[in-house]
Amino acid sequence: MSAPVLRLRPVTSIPVLRSSRRLAPLALVAALACAPEAPGYEGPYRSKVRESIVEIEESSGLAFKKLPVLEERTRDQVREFLEQQFTEQITPLEMAGLQEAYRRFGMLSDTLDLRAFMLDLLTEQVAGYYDPATKVLYVVKEAPADMRDITITHELVHALQDQHTPLDSVQSLKGDNDRAVAMQAVIEGQAVYEQLAVMVGGDIGMRLPNGWEQVKEVIRSGQGSSPKFAAAPTLLQETLLFPYLNGASFVRAVKEQRPGARMYGPFAASTEQIMHPEKFLGETPDLPTRLTLGAPRAAVLHEDNLGEFETRLFLYEHLRDLNTAVAGAAGWDGDRYQVVASGNSSSIGWLSVWDSPLEAAEFRDVMQRLIEKRFKPGDSRGAATKVTGDDRRWTAKGRRLRLHTLSIDGRPVVLYEDTPESAPVGVIALDKVTLREP
Length: 438
Hints:
Number of domains: 2
Strand content: 15-25%
Strand order of the largest sheet: 5-6-7-11-10-9-8
């Protein structure tokens, strides 16, 4: 599985969360006899792997084309692997740009070293992983027996997936964070769903009262016992959990409404579709608008998108009101941002497209609340200056903020810019922006 944190793709195998061990008692309610063993596999944990192969094939409707390979790793070897993946898959310059982007959004502190923190966090969290490059399933030696068994089942699903679709296609996707998150959520969500189905002998939502909600709460609350996770910023916590929780809910919805359908043919195209499966399952799927920002006015440090999920996270980070964050991000239809160099600091320009002028206006109003709460312009030497009804500007804390609602190619868009007070006005050249409809 690929590492879910921030969609950095440093690891081609998504770790099983340590709190998964808390799910083990749920398997007892199924009161199942041991499944028959699949013939042929002779590696480590022979009985568990053989048993799981049969159960996973029955639950998923997919068959293993060849026998899996399983090896053990120490916690130190896992960290070495993570460090190698960071080195190979994201350059220091790319990491610095990404870190600066989330700092400028106010979702990471200026003192947090993103690479170092993520290495520590993933080392804490990883109990096992499947690596598409080697086609090997790895299990951490030090993992308790109950977690090890869950990990084996979970990672076997990824080995099976990789035999039917190339998992490294997620890794190769660059510059489209939202789509990469969605693809990972499908891959990870199916593994979580099938893992739970094997544990309880079917859909847990059917086997236990409020079973599905209970499982999601167990996964979320269990992470509080992991010190590094508990100390992580909201952004890292939620992006780590998203593929497990929202991905599994998405897979469950697809299985209910399209029995026998492949989960990745095609993949979900956005986190909007993951969070709202009806936008994927509808007769005409709701696909996001793609934005091209054109040549920047300064050296680009990083360019990408947030998607509905991270737009919601951004709003929640500063307003701490989930209902407002959800409502503010509703109606998202695409976005793109650029972080550019501005002397000794940086500037960010973020353009988002909305389904309707009303939803664009609602997002703008939520953004105004966010700006006023985050930057407190009334407490500094600057104050909000309304240029027109659709263009609002502030000067606060040495920054110049702009929030502008406008139309491009007949579509409602909202521009947000945050620049140093001494920097030239403007990050995104609006006359160079193009929108591509799905």
